[in-house]
Every structure is written in structure tokens, then in C-alpha cells.
Amino acid sequence: MGIFNAISKLRNIGIIAHIDAGKTTTTERLLYYAGKISRFGDVHTGDTTTDYLPQERARGITIQNATVSFPWNGKNINLIDTPGHMDFFFEVIKALKVLDGCVVILDAVSGVESQTENCWNLASHIPKICFINKMDRVGAGFSRTVKEVIWKLNSRVVLVNVPIFAKVNSEEQFVGVLDVVNRKVLKWDPNEPDNIDVSDVSIPNNKEFLEQFTKSRESMVETLSMFDDKLVESFLEDAEGDYLKLNPEILNESIRRVTLQNKITPVLCGSAFKNIGVQPLLDSIVNYLPSPLDVKYPEINLKNLPMKYQSQAGLVFNNNKSLCAALAFKVIHDPIRGMMVFVRVYSGTLKNGHVVHNTTTGETFKIGKLIRMNANMPEEIWQLGTGEIGVITGTSIAGKLSTGDTIISDSLKRDGLKSLNRKPEFNLQINPIVTPPPVFTISVEPKTLGNKKSMENALNILITEDPSLHVTKDAELGQTLLSGMGELHLQIAKNRLLNELNADVNVGKVMVSYKETINEPSDVTIMENENKVKFSIAIEPIQEDLSENIIHKDTETWYSLGSDNNYLVMEKNQKFSDHLEDADWPLQIPYNTIVHSLMSSCIVILQRGGKLRNFPLYACAIRVKGDWEIPLDMTSPVEILTLSRTILTKITNEVQEEGYSVLEPLMNLTIGVMGQDMGSVIQDLTSARSANVLSIDEDIISSSGEKSLEFQQIAENQYLPPDLTLNNARLGNDSVSKKIIKATAPLKEIMAYSNKLRSLTQGRASFDTTYKGMIKLNQERLRILLNE
């Protein structure tokens, strides 16, 4: 099999959803029906394949990404099961960085939920399939959920299958699906999960489904025809304008083409727990989601470096077929195997024993061993090809790789880096993963001075594995602080510190993570040392939250400094700017090393904090003017580090106390309440929570004023099969009287809010929160904080 052909058979996909939508249960069924496991586990009994951590099994939730590989219909699927809880959203960010497509799981009872929207927006750049799960549940609404996908997620849909029901004890029960593409009725036997009764929709016994099939097929063809001229041609010529005569193969090809363009979302339904609809989902994954050859080029730091797909090699950088480039997207420490780094190979072949260069840090080292992980079960391999996902392990990589690092090597020679040394691809970096800012903090202190070293080692393991955890030092209080994405996030980290990493520490209560920022740009400070190393640097505030790792502008480039919206801004140096991406770079020190050294200095100084409470600095741009000088023969970056830290220390020291402001996390709130409870909830929000109420809407699709008129019209015109749940929801008094309150509030004011909301509404309300950004404290809130 040729390399190109092998790559085309790969599917790198993820499972994303709101918590409790059934991701892990669906993953278990996918593995079972693909023959990867002989029996499926259960979330409630704690024996699932992908939720293998002790805390995952104890809590019944997914905490970290788990990778599994399995075949289906001649294709190889690499699947990443992601967490649904908001506190572990960074795991979703990491996964989507290296995935080519994803399956969005929706709860048919709850519909599109807040985390569904967050995940969808994060995955906006890749093709998706929707699987409406839990169709067996009381209150499940297929049509209602599809309308919410159109309305809330701004997506056109194609119904690949629709649910069918049968009367059991005088009640309608979900028993299977109507396959709109293949004209089939599929029914599952609840007592025999491996058996499917498949029949043609046109036989007399299926007469009741014919009208539903006809309307669904017409809707499918009309939607696809808006984007696919090939289908229109087949419809008019081969099918003679008859929707029902269109060949299933023609329809599948059309759905794939339009899905890869991200114009539509194929929708399927089922009940993973009842083993219904899983095989059609597997078919759709391989039929509709992209291979690594169908996706856009990766975003890289070298904007002028040529990239293309070649017929025998896959993705090639700068016409160099032997170049291997891979991105590290996850790091774990295994008690037996040591450090394990998960990588996605973008070009070339990564091989055991080959020397690799970390272009992010400048480190060069040899790969020890390559393995492919199936959840927590390793499978040794000798190479990873283009598009593949696997794991590097061995003692040689300890401390050499972090999440977001790019590594390059020669695919053919064990030590072929010398041939790359003066080529632009030697500095190639796949844009790293954006880390969100932490919003909660706990203090961590060793029980005795003798425990300090083990505490630091344990914390280092935590932040290496999970870069959304941050460790800082409070110089004023002499404390070590651990910050994370939420209370549960820090509970898990605390449990790992005490029980897995055996750190003898005392852990404080959860606090809000505050930041400081500067109010005005500083003056430019110019320094030159005795060896003619010269920098001119200033610090200025950033007025908006940026989410890109590298921002190229005409006269400058912005490099992200991590999770606190801080950036290093490198203005163009007229002496050297024309040679950044070619072999004529005149300095002994690579440009990437210069940038990396400056970034290291910036991070250290910004973490020291401001003058009000020593909180880490946030939203600061450190601008390096274009007149910097470095001697041509200098080989070590030590002087760059020393001089830049001296300048930055001088600048921050010269900013007066009144030149700083304190920032606090601001959260978005979405609260669902019954009409009779709305008044007390709003009063509590505005008087006790310092909240700003943005809108109050009816909880029915047609009343929302936030979505575009275009998608409102699409939702209303979309053919959907009869849905009793949807009809009942529109007629029932409870649903009509339910209100959706959207507001913003400081994080500090909504800690433990769920208990208060439960008390105000007698348990009838629900709420979700998402991080909105950092906001300056007003004078009253600042006074209270400074006096604490």
C-alpha cells in the first residue's frame, strides 16, 4: 500500500459534548462493535476503557483525554475521548489542535447545552457529525434537538437517519433508525445487541415509514444541492429528477464533499446505552469525516514556508520529503514507563532511535521508544507515519518536551539534522496550543522543610502534564500558589498531589485568581552591555483578549507568553528581517533562540507581579524595538537573558503603584428558571452577586433574539419527522413559563452559587457558567480586597 493511500484511510477524530451527554458510553460501544474490546464497560460500575484513572472511575466523569485506535470498514480510526466538564476544557483544546474531525454527542432530552456551544465554537474549523444520543429516554426530542443545532449552533444539517418507534405496552419505544441514504429500516433487538434487523423501506411491512423516508430524502437532496453541483448533475441526469432514485453511493460522496467544506453537519441518532445506532455512526465517521489529506495546512510560524500535499508523501514542507515534523499535545508521567509524550505527525515519518530537534526550545535528543496507546494499554511500534498519533517514551526525553512543542527529524537518516541546520525548516514551529487563564487558586505548603523538594517535584509533574495548572510564588506571604480552571480542577490536582504523587503538603482553601496590569505604556528603556548586546524595550497594556499564539503584522510579530494574555512583540530589525526564513541568517544564534530567550525573561518578570498585591501581570505587551544588536559571533543566549531581565526589572520597578490595576475573573451565567422564581433570582443576582443582567428570554426556540434571522428561517423550513416531545414542550405550561436569564458576574460572587439558587427555586432551576475575561476592580471592590 502506498503512503498516500495509507494516509487517506486514516481518521483522527474526537468525541466532544456537554457533561453527561454519553461520550464515554458511546466510545465503549464504538470500540465494542469495531472488535477492539470483547465486552463494554459501564460508567456507573467504573470499568470503561477510556475512563481508567482512579478519580475518573470514582466520580463517573472524564477528567483527561484518552486515545484509542481501531479499524472499521478498511479505515483506521484514531479517537480521542474528551472531558465534558468545563473545568477540564483545556483537554478539549489540546485534542482539537491535532484532530481532523469530530463527533458531537447531544443528549436528546437536554438538547444543545452550554458546553455543547463552547465545544462547537472551539471546533469551528473542522468538520463535524452530530449524534443525538439517549433517544430511549422519557422526554427525548429528536426534532427539537435538531432545530437547536440549526438555531443555536448556526449550522445547516442533513439527516442521515431519523428515529423510529414501536408500541411496547401501549407506549412508544425507540427501537431503531430509518436510513435515509440507503433506503433501509434498521431495528435492534434489546436482548441481542449484536443483531440488527435490516429491511428495505419499500416492503409492505414498512409502509408506515415510506412518507417519512420520502420527505427526509427530498430535504437531504435539496440541502446538498445548494453546495454540490455534482449532485445536481446526477439528480437531473442519472436519477431523472427523482429524489428516490438517487444512488446511495452518489449521496454518500456528496455528503462527504459538503461536510469537508464545513457547509453542513450530518445528523444521526441512537441510544448508546441501549446499543442502538452505533454501527451507522461508525459508518458515518469513515464516510464523511476527513483524512489528514482533506484538511487545511497546519498553522506555522514561518508564513512564507511552502507547504503542499504530494501524491506519494502526504504533507511536505519546503519540498523536503525527508523532513518529519510533529507536535506534542499531551504529556503524562507513568510510574512504570516514565515520561510519555503524545504527538501528532504532520509530515514525514517519526522513527525509533532517530535524533530529533525541539524547535521550540532548541533541545536535540534521541527518541527512545514509540508506542501507540489504547487508553492505558501500550502497543509498541517502530515508527509513526504522516497523520498518525502516537507516544514517545524513554529516559532520553525526560525534561526535553512539553505540551505545544514542535519536533523535527530526518525520516531516512538516524541523525540527519545537520542537513537541515541552515534551512528555514530547521526553525519550523507548528503554532502551539493556547492555554486559557486560571481563575481559581489554592496555597500549597510543605509540612516540613524536608518536604519542600518533593513538593516542588510533584508540582512540576502536575504542571508538565496539565499546562492549564500554574504554579506561582507569593513573595509577600512566602507561599506557593497552585492555580487552575475551576474548583473541581483543583480538587483533582490536590488529590493527585496527596494520593498519587505522595507529596507531604498542606493545601489551603480555594480562592479566586486575581491579576494585575499596567494602566499606561512605559517609556522605552535602552541598554547595551560591554559585549555590544543592545535592546530597547517598553511595556504596554493590551486592551482586548487575544487568542492566537503568533500574530504576524507588517512591521512586527506578536508571540504569546502563555495563558495570561501577555505577548512579546518583536518589531522588524532592518538588518536581519529579510533573512529570518532563508539560509543567509548571519548570526550564530538562530532567531528562534533569540525569541525564546526573550520570552523566558518576559515570563519570569511578569510572574513577579505588580505593586498592589504582587498578583501576576496580565494583558501586557513587551515590545522589543527593531534596533536590537547582537554580535555576529555570539553563540550563547545567556547575555540576551541577562540584559533583557535587567531592562524589564528596571521598567516594572519604575512604574508607580497607582500605575497598576487589579483584575478579577468575570463569568458568563446562563440560568434557567421557572417564571414564578424569576423575580427572586434576579434580585439576588443584582443585589448580592454584583451581576449585570444581559437578557431574559423564553426557553423556546422561536423566541431567542440572539441568532440570525437566516438560521431562524432555516430551522423553521427544515423538514423534521413528527416529534411528540417538541409538540408537548410547546403546549405545556411549565415549558412556556420557563425563562433563560443571561448575565455576567464576578467569579468571587458566584462561588457556591448552586446552593443559593437551589434554595431560591426549591431545586427547579439550572445554571451554567463560562469564563468571559478579566475585568478591572472598581474602587470599592479594590478597597475590600486590599483590606482582606
From TrEMBL:
<keyword id="KW-0496">Mitochondrion</keyword>
<feature type="domain" description="Tr-type G">
    <location>
        <begin position="8"/>
        <end position="293"/>
    </location>
</feature>
<keyword id="KW-0648">Protein biosynthesis</keyword>
<keyword id="KW-0342">GTP-binding</keyword>
<dbReference type="Pfam" id="PF00009">
    <property type="entry name" value="GTP_EFTU"/>
</dbReference>
<dbReference type="GO" id="GO:0032543">
    <property type="term" value="P:mitochondrial translation"/>
</dbReference>
<dbReference type="InterPro" id="IPR000640">
    <property type="entry name" value="EFG_V-like"/>
</dbReference>
<dbReference type="InterPro" id="IPR027417">
    <property type="entry name" value="P-loop_NTPase"/>
</dbReference>
<dbReference type="InterPro" id="IPR030851">
    <property type="entry name" value="EFG2"/>
</dbReference>
<feature type="binding site">
    <location>
        <begin position="17"/>
        <end position="24"/>
    </location>
    <ligand>
        <name>GTP</name>
    </ligand>
</feature>
<dbReference type="InterPro" id="IPR035647">
    <property type="entry name" value="EFG_III/V"/>
</dbReference>
<dbReference type="InterPro" id="IPR005225">
    <property type="entry name" value="Small_GTP-bd"/>
</dbReference>
<protein>
    <recommendedName>
        <fullName>Ribosome-releasing factor 2, mitochondrial</fullName>
    </recommendedName>
</protein>
<dbReference type="GO" id="GO:0003924">
    <property type="term" value="F:GTPase activity"/>
</dbReference>
<dbReference type="Pfam" id="PF14492">
    <property type="entry name" value="EFG_III"/>
</dbReference>
<dbReference type="GO" id="GO:0032790">
    <property type="term" value="P:ribosome disassembly"/>
</dbReference>
<dbReference type="GO" id="GO:0005759">
    <property type="term" value="C:mitochondrial matrix"/>
</dbReference>
<dbReference type="InterPro" id="IPR000795">
    <property type="entry name" value="T_Tr_GTP-bd_dom"/>
</dbReference>
<dbReference type="GO" id="GO:0005525">
    <property type="term" value="F:GTP binding"/>
</dbReference>
<feature type="binding site">
    <location>
        <begin position="81"/>
        <end position="85"/>
    </location>
    <ligand>
        <name>GTP</name>
    </ligand>
</feature>
<dbReference type="InterPro" id="IPR035649">
    <property type="entry name" value="EFG_V"/>
</dbReference>
<dbReference type="InterPro" id="IPR053905">
    <property type="entry name" value="EF-G-like_DII"/>
</dbReference>
<keyword id="KW-0547">Nucleotide-binding</keyword>
<dbReference type="Pfam" id="PF00679">
    <property type="entry name" value="EFG_C"/>
</dbReference>
<dbReference type="Pfam" id="PF22042">
    <property type="entry name" value="EF-G_D2"/>
</dbReference>
<feature type="binding site">
    <location>
        <begin position="133"/>
        <end position="136"/>
    </location>
    <ligand>
        <name>GTP</name>
    </ligand>
</feature>
<comment type="function">
    <text>Mitochondrial GTPase that mediates the disassembly of ribosomes from messenger RNA at the termination of mitochondrial protein biosynthesis. Not involved in the GTP-dependent ribosomal translocation step during translation elongation.</text>
</comment>
<comment type="similarity">
    <text>Belongs to the TRAFAC class translation factor GTPase superfamily. Classic translation factor GTPase family. EF-G/EF-2 subfamily.</text>
</comment>
<dbReference type="InterPro" id="IPR041095">
    <property type="entry name" value="EFG_II"/>
</dbReference>
<dbReference type="InterPro" id="IPR009022">
    <property type="entry name" value="EFG_III"/>
</dbReference>
<dbReference type="InterPro" id="IPR031157">
    <property type="entry name" value="G_TR_CS"/>
</dbReference>
<dbReference type="InterPro" id="IPR009000">
    <property type="entry name" value="Transl_B-barrel_sf"/>
</dbReference>
<dbReference type="GO" id="GO:0051881">
    <property type="term" value="P:regulation of mitochondrial membrane potential"/>
</dbReference>
